[in-house]
Specification:
This protein has about 100 residues and is mainly α. It has five helices and no strands. It is elongated, with a radius of gyration of 21 Å.
Length: about 100
Amino acid sequence: MRVSKEQAAENRERILKAASRLMRERGISSVGVDALTEAAGMTHGSLYSQFGSKERLVEEAVAHAIRRRTGTCREAAAPSRPCVARCRAKAEACESASQPECGA
């Protein structure tokens, strides 16, 4: 049965999310294809049709996790966030004066 491009993209994302989570929890070498397919709710065939090999899936899952983490860090460091503004102001104050609380 053929799946639409949209469904294939959703399947791929589901596999990447499950793979990156399992690999973080258990370690890359401790996660087999059976566990990956079960966690994603997919079949071996769908995994191999999307990635070709476990090695390729590992590469993409790690890249996926890094992209997600980078996005989270960017959001956390947004200049509009009050905590970020306070931290920046404190850092600027520490740079311009010898203050004991700054470690100077």
